[in-house]
């Protein structure tokens, strides 16, 4: 078993200062994250550590969107970076306990094993997953539908070194908001 020092240092994603975003800004932020994933696919960092350091600059944005999960995984499908939304949906109060684990380690068996198999296809074969309709965990660990994007991350030599993913909830936020 590898020690935690074998992993790149986690990126600290501090909780958002906003309670919620107006719907218009939320749509903009989701589109921005989708463009970020596209940009990651074209970047060629020397290693995952360099990529994680770059992503630290947008960490507040990653945590400010309550209906989106975002993550970076290493070549063994272990979380290296995740937003607070994903950590909370996995039952954690912070991101740290999630790091170094696979989806199969943190999600219920009926969901987690399928996510990990999908991750390994991306990591081994460079499969691009776009707009995959999937059952996910929402807040309170209730199930709900999401659209998922996953893509391989390549180093400067063209070798797959990890993957990035984003899942966007399909259920409207206002359906659960106490103001409605």
UniProtKB/TrEMBL annotation:
Occurrences of domain PAS fold-4 (ranges): 62-174
Fetch the InterPro entries from UniProt.
PAS-like_dom_sf (IPR035965), PAS_4 (IPR013656)
User: What Pfam families does this protein map onto?
Assistant: PAS_4 (PF08448)
- Report the protein name in the record: AraC family transcriptional regulator
């Amino acid at each position: 078993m590898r020690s935690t020092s074998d992993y790149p240092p986690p990126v600290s994603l501090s909780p958002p200062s906003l309670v919620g975003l107006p719907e218009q800004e939320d749509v903009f932020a989701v589109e921005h994250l989708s463009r970020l994933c596209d940009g990651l696919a074209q970047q060629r960092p020397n290693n995952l550590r360099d990529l994680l350091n770059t992503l630290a600059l947008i960490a507040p944005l990653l945590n400010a969107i309550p209906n989106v999960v975002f993550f970076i995984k290493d070549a063994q499908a272990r979380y290296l970076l995740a937003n607070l939304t994903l950590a909370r949906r996995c039952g954690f109060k912070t991101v740290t306990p999630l790091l170094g684990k696979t989806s199969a380690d943190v999600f219920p068996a009926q969901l987690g094993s399928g996510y990990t198999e999908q991750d390994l296809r991306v990591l081994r074969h460079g499969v691009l997953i776009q707009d995959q309709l999937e059952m996910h965990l929402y807040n309170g660990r209730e199930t709900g539908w999401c659209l998922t994007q996953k893509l391989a991350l390549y180093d400067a030599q063209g070798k797959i070194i990890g993957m990035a993913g984003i899942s966007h909830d399909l259920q409207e936020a206002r359906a659960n908001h106490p103001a409605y």
